Each structure stands twice: as C-alpha cells, then as structure tokens.
Amino acid sequence: MFDIELIREFEREETPFYYYDLDLLKRTLKSIDLEATKYNFHVHYALKANFNDRLLRLIQENGLGADCVSGNEVLKALEMGFDADKIVFAGVGKSDKEINIALENNIFSFNVESIQELEVINELAAEKNKVARVALRINPNVDAQTHHYITTGLDENKFGIKSWELEDCINTLKKLSSVKLIGIHFHVGSQITDLNVFKSLCVKVNELNNWFEERGHYLQVLNVGGGLGVDYHNPDENDIPDFESYFKTFDQFLERKLNQEVHFELGRAVVAQSGSLISRVLYVKKGIKKNFIILDAGMTELMRPALYQAYHKVQQLSNSDESSETFNYDVVGPICESSDCFAKEVSLREAKRGDLIAIRSAGAYGEVMSSGYNLRNEIRYVYSGERN
Ligand code: LLP
C-alpha cells in the first residue's frame, strides 16, 4: 500500500493526517458492483462509516445508494449527488426536524424503529399531504457475535421493533393513511466475520416475510442492513472484503417472493481498508517494565481502540531495515487519558523520534468519530489514486 514515493510525500506533510487510497476504494466498489449485480441486489452505503466528500463522490459515482442516520446525513447525501430515491433513513431517535427534511426531499424510505415513530411520521407526512414510504426495522434477536458495543439485533438492544410488537404495529398501520409499508429492515451488528450470522438472519427474515404475507401484506423490500467485517490483522492480504461469499450467502438463504428487492447497507466493508491514520513518533520512552512510543495522533483522531479495544495494525513506514533490533512497545497517543493507546506490547523495529507510523484499516469509523478533546487540531488529509 505504501511505496517509497508515497512515503516521501508523507515526509513532507504535517502529521497526523488521514491517508485515503482512492484506487483501493475504486477497486472495492467494482467488486461490490460485480458481486451484487449477479443477484440484482441494491446496495446503500452507510454514511456514518465515513462522510468525507472525496470518498462519498466516488461511492455515489459507482451507483450506490445512501443509508443515513440523521437529517444532516440525508442532506449530505443529496449534496453529494445521491438520488433521493436511493436514500434510506434509519435511527432510533429521529427528530421532527429530521423527519421533515427527509419528507421534503422524498427519500426512498424511512427505516422505522418504533410504533410511536410510525405515528409521528404519519402526522408530519399528513401535514405536507405526502405519503411516506416506511420499512419496519425489526429486531430479530440474532447474535452478531461481535463486540457488545456494536451488537444491535438482540432483545436487550434499543434498536428496532420487537417481534411481539408486530401485531400491534400492523393494527396501527391500518389506521395511518400517510405512511405506506414497503418493507422490513434488519441490522444485527457490525464487524461480523462469520457468515453463519447472516445465514441465521436470513432464516429470521424468511419467517417474518411469510408472517407478513399471511396477513395480506406484500413487501417490496427486504433490507438486511450492513455488518460485513474486514480483516484488521491482514489489511494488505485482504484489502478487499469477500463480497462474493457475502452476497452469495443471501442469495442462497433468503427466500425472495415475486419481484421482491433485497437491499443492503454496507459501511465498514466499503471504506475501512482504504484509510490509514499517518502519524509521527514524538518521543520514545524506554522503561524497565514497558517501552512506549508516543505518537502525535491519539484517541482524538481514532477512537476505536480506546472505545472498543479494537485492533488496528501498526505499521512502521520509516525504519525498513529488517535487521534492526526489535522491541515490545505500547503505542500511545498524546491525550491525557490512559485509554489513549493504539496497541499494547507490539513487537516493532527500534523506533526513533520523527519516524512515520501508519495505523491501518482506519477508513471506517475513524475520521467521523474524531473529537476536539484537548483542543486538538482539525483533521488533515492526503489522498492517492486521484490527484487534485
Ligand atoms: N445500517 C445500520 C442500521 C447501522 O446501524 C449500521 C452501523 C450500518 C448499517 C453499517 O454497518 P457496517 O456495514 O459498517 O457494519 N463505530 C463502530 C461501528 C458502529 C456501527 C453502527 N451501525 C465501530 O467503530 O466499530
């Protein structure tokens, strides 16, 4: 991923910054297109993973729709050229203002997370003489077997309508004339690496699809959400996720009824591997118990390790001398928090002040989750694959 030319370019830049490999993103998008088209699947990109303009433009140009979780994300998607009829809007807490933004712009569908929300959308749509298309986000109680902070499809999670509320939901829908049920929606979690989880999801979707049919509701859309994980340990070997097996799983196990569309909402799998956080070593502390590499990037630029104990590969870009001595280091940031640590006890070649370090697979949920804590500077960027 990093050739000498690129590292020379990095040397001239002020750190820290996010580096995005737009060629890799393009290849990833091609693979999604190739594999999803085989089954006529519709893919929306989950903006929450990264809403950097340059990335969004490429994603939009490659024909993906947009999955948004706020009114501002809806506006951003529109500004970046995503068709309104390819925009879906999810979230447990949509405000009236956000619902109105989506209604005014005639988005494809609201993924509705409660009966109360259904009533509010109905009321706001009626005021505008509109009929809002809605898909019910159902919580299928499927264990995504991922970190508990990014598990969303269990009974104890706040997301979606629970199966025991569905009867009520259908009865409410009968009374509402400004919403139209077009489908059902699911999202069970993120960074899912075991395809059996998606197989279990398909089984639940099939059951519910039949349940609605038995009650006389034809569903145009089955939206199975996102969640496909990436290989954080081997970002070079597995730079493009296995979309072939992923989409094939749904084709095999999902029972589509006549003309039913299948929709996806992928975030991480689209952008994670295209991004790296590039940082410089500020100081090296050698101790009796521990050695520390102190970087100029911290949890303020990439929060995932501090928040989820997430693994990101730490790659040295400066010392390429294979014969140099290795040490075990804790690689930490400059922020006044002990959780500001990117990696513990990693074996690295001897590091020195000024060395460039890449924190890999940071394209998803990196830049977007950054914060200004400690009054940090704004995030900077370098792109390759497409120059200004
Ligand atoms: N659809 C819905 C309704 C979602 O809630 C999410 C992610 C997605 C789609 C996209 O999921 P993906 O394909 O990216 O797994 N900040 C966490 C991840 C939070 C995911 C939230 N929802 C992290 O850094 O791991």
UniProtKB/TrEMBL annotation:
<feature type="binding site">
    <location>
        <position position="337"/>
    </location>
    <ligand>
        <name>substrate</name>
    </ligand>
</feature>
<dbReference type="InterPro" id="IPR000183">
    <property type="entry name" value="Orn/DAP/Arg_de-COase"/>
</dbReference>
<feature type="binding site">
    <location>
        <position position="268"/>
    </location>
    <ligand>
        <name>substrate</name>
    </ligand>
</feature>
<feature type="domain" description="Orn/DAP/Arg decarboxylase 2 N-terminal">
    <location>
        <begin position="36"/>
        <end position="272"/>
    </location>
</feature>
<comment type="function">
    <text>Specifically catalyzes the decarboxylation of meso-diaminopimelate (meso-DAP) to L-lysine.</text>
</comment>
<comment type="similarity">
    <text>Belongs to the Orn/Lys/Arg decarboxylase class-II family. LysA subfamily.</text>
</comment>
<comment type="subunit">
    <text>Homodimer.</text>
</comment>
<keyword id="KW-0028">Amino-acid biosynthesis</keyword>
<dbReference type="InterPro" id="IPR022643">
    <property type="entry name" value="De-COase2_C"/>
</dbReference>
<keyword id="KW-0210">Decarboxylase</keyword>
<dbReference type="InterPro" id="IPR009006">
    <property type="entry name" value="Ala_racemase/Decarboxylase_C"/>
</dbReference>
<dbReference type="InterPro" id="IPR029066">
    <property type="entry name" value="PLP-binding_barrel"/>
</dbReference>
<feature type="binding site">
    <location>
        <position position="304"/>
    </location>
    <ligand>
        <name>substrate</name>
    </ligand>
</feature>
<comment type="pathway">
    <text>Amino-acid biosynthesis; L-lysine biosynthesis via DAP pathway; L-lysine from DL-2,6-diaminopimelate: step 1/1.</text>
</comment>
<keyword id="KW-0663">Pyridoxal phosphate</keyword>
<dbReference type="GO" id="GO:0008836">
    <property type="term" value="F:diaminopimelate decarboxylase activity"/>
</dbReference>
<keyword id="KW-0457">Lysine biosynthesis</keyword>
<feature type="binding site">
    <location>
        <position position="365"/>
    </location>
    <ligand>
        <name>substrate</name>
    </ligand>
</feature>
<dbReference type="Pfam" id="PF02784">
    <property type="entry name" value="Orn_Arg_deC_N"/>
</dbReference>
<feature type="modified residue" description="N6-(pyridoxal phosphate)lysine">
    <location>
        <position position="48"/>
    </location>
</feature>
<feature type="binding site">
    <location>
        <position position="227"/>
    </location>
    <ligand>
        <name>pyridoxal 5'-phosphate</name>
    </ligand>
</feature>
<dbReference type="Pfam" id="PF00278">
    <property type="entry name" value="Orn_DAP_Arg_deC"/>
</dbReference>
<dbReference type="InterPro" id="IPR022653">
    <property type="entry name" value="De-COase2_pyr-phos_BS"/>
</dbReference>
<protein>
    <recommendedName>
        <fullName>Diaminopimelate decarboxylase</fullName>
        <ecNumber>4.1.1.20</ecNumber>
    </recommendedName>
</protein>
<feature type="binding site">
    <location>
        <begin position="265"/>
        <end position="268"/>
    </location>
    <ligand>
        <name>pyridoxal 5'-phosphate</name>
    </ligand>
</feature>
<dbReference type="InterPro" id="IPR022644">
    <property type="entry name" value="De-COase2_N"/>
</dbReference>
<feature type="domain" description="Orn/DAP/Arg decarboxylase 2 C-terminal">
    <location>
        <begin position="18"/>
        <end position="363"/>
    </location>
</feature>
<dbReference type="InterPro" id="IPR002986">
    <property type="entry name" value="DAP_deCOOHase_LysA"/>
</dbReference>
<dbReference type="InterPro" id="IPR022657">
    <property type="entry name" value="De-COase2_CS"/>
</dbReference>
<keyword id="KW-0456">Lyase</keyword>
<feature type="binding site">
    <location>
        <position position="365"/>
    </location>
    <ligand>
        <name>pyridoxal 5'-phosphate</name>
    </ligand>
</feature>
<feature type="binding site">
    <location>
        <position position="308"/>
    </location>
    <ligand>
        <name>substrate</name>
    </ligand>
</feature>
